[in-house]
């Protein structure tokens, strides 16, 4: 018998109050196809957020669905205590694509767990619990990753197993260096890093940074900034962790990994990934050079990381992405979408900035004529876009309010135009 109580009421009764829901009238998504999803009332939406950048290729992609069904029909679970062919095959592919020499791969179930693992490796390898992180950053919801998250909206506690120092540089158009050109901005951020290191007692384990900050509102530094940081880090023996949970797999269009925009001094020591690789299945992971990955001297396994079913999905999804050049599509269609959004923004005083790369775009909203964040405007646009048949995301720092756009990488030109027009109408409703 169907439970007559509305699903939203049941949600509020048994789930935490801090578990956020979008929209005044939250929607239940029941199925999807391609770049579209449907809710329980039969409404169809163009999906410009992809389950928080997780549906990377397409909803209900036949190749992934088939791989999952076939693997589930053989064996669903075994753990890392047994040889696992799909896991080895995906690790081989990720290792080869990572750009890290002699790379080793460890699979987890989420980006949070991947970053948690990276912190374990770095602090063990360097025998230090001190971490450098970027202001406005987000790295997950576990106890350790919250402690390196520089965005107060996602930091529910000040307690921490780590000593974290925050440095400037990840936000190009706000803060004390915003007025500088790219060269001077990078030099100032490097000087700030040097100053922070001068105040630290003992060695730092690692710098962790998102090439494009996700939850923080799709902000990014000038190209080459983390490469310039790398020169300083290398002098001190500090590891570089690139958090590619949102930027990996070609989403930025120009590069397969976000760190490649900062590659003048070589690849990171550690790369973390998740979200899009599973196209909705729970996959995260860490790639690191062998001596770093192998530094643990105690037993370790993963019960659910690298499960046969999720690895089958990852293999099929990655093959589809590469075979269909979705990175190139992100560059081409994303470029057109960004141009369209910038043209729209000129007519809407509430839009302070349109920024992004590939199919990773952010619209920062402020009270017209000021730099003051306007979260109410962001919420109003989110609601208006939903009413028009478009799903978006939100983000930003303590002083910003940003609409986040990150559709599946197979987005077509026609769908980009459709989404831009719906968003334009939603933005104009603010005027």
Largest sheet: 7 strands, mixed
Percent helix range:
25-40%
Low-pLDDT ranges: none
Shape: globular
Radius of gyration: 21 Å
Count of discrete alpha- or pi-helical segments spanning 4 or more residues: 13
How many strand units?
15
The first-to-last residue Cα distance is: 48 Å
Average pLDDT metric: 96
SSE order, as H and E? HEEEHHHEHEHEHEHEEEHHHEEHEEEH
Strand order of the largest sheet: 4-10-9-8-7-5-6
Beta-strand percentage range: 15-25%
Strand pairing plus helix content: what structural class?
alpha/beta
Give the helix/strand layout:
Layout: H1 7-14, E1 29-33, E2 36-39, E3 44-47, H2 50-53, H3 62-74, H4 85-98, E4 103-108, H5 111-126, E5 130-134, H6 143-146, E6 163-167, H7 182-198, E7 206-209, H8 225-236, E8 239-243, E9 270-273, E10 284-289, H9 290-293, H10 308-323, H11 326-345, E11 351-357, E12 360-365, H12 375-387, E13 390-391, E14 393-395, E15 402-405, H13 413-428
Parallel strand pairs: 3-13, 5-6, 5-7, 7-8, 8-9
Antiparallel strand pairs: 1-2, 2-3, 4-10, 9-10, 11-12, 12-15, 14-15
């Amino acid at each position: 018998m169907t439970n007559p109580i509305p699903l939203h009421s049941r949600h509020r009764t048994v789930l935490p109050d801090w578990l956020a829901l979008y929209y005044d009238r939250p929607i239940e998504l029941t199925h999807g196809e391609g770049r579209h999803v449907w809710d329980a009332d039969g409404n169809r939406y163009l999906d410009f957020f992809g389950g928080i950048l997780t549906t990377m290729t397409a909803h209900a992609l036949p190749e992934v669905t088939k791989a999952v069904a076939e693997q589930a029909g053989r064996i669903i679970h075994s753990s890392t205590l047994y040889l696992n062919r799909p896991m080895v095959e995906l690790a081989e592919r990720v290792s080869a694509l990572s750009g890290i020499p002699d790379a080793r791969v460890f699979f987890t179930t989420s980006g949070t767990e991947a970053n948690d693992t990276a912190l374990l490796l770095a602090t063990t390898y360097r025998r230090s619990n001190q971490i450098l992180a970027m202001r406005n950053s987000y790295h997950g919801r576990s106890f350790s990753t919250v402690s390196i998250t520089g965005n107060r909206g996602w930091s529910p506690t000040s307690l921490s197993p780590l000593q974290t120092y925050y440095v400037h540089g990840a936000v190009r158009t706000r803060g004390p260096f915003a007025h500088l050109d790219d060269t001077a901005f990078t030099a100032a951020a490097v000087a700030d890093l040097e100053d922070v290191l001068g105040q630290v007692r003992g060695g730092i384990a690692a710098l962790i940074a998102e090439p494009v900050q996700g939850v923080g509102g799709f902000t990014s530094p000038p190209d080459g900034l983390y490469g310039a940081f790398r020169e300083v880090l290398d002098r001190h023996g500090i590891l570089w962790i690139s958090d590619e949970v949102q930027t990996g797999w070609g989403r930025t269009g120009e590069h397969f990994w976000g760190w490649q925009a900062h590659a003048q001094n070589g690849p990171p020591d550690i790369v973390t990934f998740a979200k899009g690789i599973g196209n909705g299945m729970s996959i995260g992971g860490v790639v690191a050079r062998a001596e770093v990955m192998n530094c643990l001297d105690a037993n370790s396994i993963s019960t659910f990381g690298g499960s046969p079913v999720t690895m089958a999905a990852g293999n099929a999804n990655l093959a589809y992405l590469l075979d269909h050049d979705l990175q190139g599509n992100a560059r081409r269609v994303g470029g057109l979408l960004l141009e369209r959004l910038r043209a729209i923004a000129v007519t809407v005083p509430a839009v302070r900035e349109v920024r992004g790369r590939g199919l990773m775009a952010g619209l920062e909203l402020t009270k017209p004529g000021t730099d003051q964040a306007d979260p109410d405007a962001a919420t109003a646009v989110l609601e208006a876009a939903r009413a028009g048949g478009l799903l978006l995301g939100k983000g930003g720092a303590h002083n910003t309010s940003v609409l986040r756009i990150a559709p599946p990488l197979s987005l077509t030109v026609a769908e980009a135009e459709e989404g831009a027009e719906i968003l334009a109408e939603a933005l104009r409703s603010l005027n």
